[in-house]
Structures are given as structure tokens and as C-alpha cells.
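Intended use. Records such as the Cupin 2 conserved barrel domain protein entry shown here are meant for training and evaluating sequence-to-structure methods. They are not intended to support clinical decisions.
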Amino acid sequence: MKIIRMNEVEGKKNHRGVNAKKLIQHQHTTVMNLILNPGEIIPEHSVPVDVFFYVVDGKGTIQIGEEEAVVGEKDIILCPRETTMALKADQGQRFEVLNVKTPSIKY
């Protein structure tokens, strides 16, 4: 059994400028813990794999394609491959999500 304690994984600024912790990466899945401080954003982009977001803590706005929604703790948001997505910590609080990509892509 392998236990990953997210609070013990060291994060670093990713290429989009937010704190990111790589939790799992193998050929089938990549799981990143993204932590956005108030006012931070991950701008619109798309990836060639399916993605879902699980909100760990806080509230923020997620854009999938042309749709935007304010989401909060324990919400799951689906994003099909090649669909634009963006995240915004625009609710005056920290916004922490798990970003799960299947299959995996390299960072």
C-alpha cells in the first residue's frame, strides 16, 4: 500500500505560475494538486486527454469550454479532451483542486 499525504508533498510554481504538487504520474494517470491563492488564475488552455477537477478546499470559478461556474469543496468538474479550461481563485479565498488527467501526459 502506498499512502500519499498531500500536506507532505512539496509543491513548486508550475509553468502557469501557480503552486502545483505532483501526486501521481504513470502511463495511465497524472494527478496534480493545484493551489491557487486569491486572485491567481490558470489561463485558458486545452490538453489532448480527458481531465477532471475535484475541489479539495475553498471556492473558485472553473471554465470548461464556453461555460463558467463557481464551484466549491467536494465538487467534481469534467472536461473532455481538447476542450478549453481555466481556473480562477476569484471568490476571495484560496482555491485548491486535484487535477486528474487520463491517460497521463508528461510535464
